[in-house]
Design a protein that fits this description.
By secondary structure, this protein is of the alpha+beta class. The protein has one domain: CNF1/YfiH-like putative cysteine hydrolases (4-Layer Sandwich), CATH 3.60.140.10. It is built from seven helices and twelve strands. Strand 9 and strand 10 form a beta hairpin. The two termini are 18 Å apart.
Amino acid sequence: MITSKKLSKFSDISHAFFNKYGGVSKGIYKSLNCGIGSKDKKNYVKKNLEIVKRKICRKSKEIFLVNQVHSNKFIFLSKNSKIKNRSIKADAIITEKTNFPIAVLTADCVPLLIFDKKRKIIAAIHAGWKGALKGIVNKVIKFMLKKGCSRKDISVAIGPSITQKNYKIKIDFKNKFIKKHKKNKIFFKNQNGLIYFDLPNFIKSQLKFNKINKIDMVNIDTYDKKNNFFSARRSLKLKHDDYGRNISIIMIN
């Protein structure tokens, strides 16, 4: 369980980035797999989500999740929202509800946790390269500002994800980003005839573009085995037929 120094300063929220430790799953999912969409036993995943929930909030009935689809779609939950858990296809959740934990699942993609200290609004974003390229971060920030949030009051934690040294890509991938904006070439590195992409810093640049300056980067590489995070790319390399998911969670107390 890892926390952000910036977000930890606020007593009115609880948050955490969880790795593989502390759950009940077996085999390739050992042990805190929170991936409802994985091939793991459903009762194990349910127990793991309950373990996470207890660490964040005992009052809440469940952790609110969306059906993640690598999009730029988000959902807003007002104080009276009655939307069913996992019923919406989206990749970000924004809410003003209290004692209502929201979370995203990742396995190399970037999780972002956001808090506006005055307006008391939180957000959780799942940003893979597709969602990032489609502008999910921009959309969430713009919506929060429309809801009365202020740039100076917003703090963001960019959680554990795959880092550039382990994010090998092909030229057509790079071209998608360059086509979007020539300046994006700074997030690519050529080494020994291979191309590597810096997803977390690409996302940080989008926050900066939106004039968000209170940013905490939790520099932990999910691909690196010693950090004990689930990694889709590492699982693929090991020829596993599936992989577990890490959970990143935030709640207004």
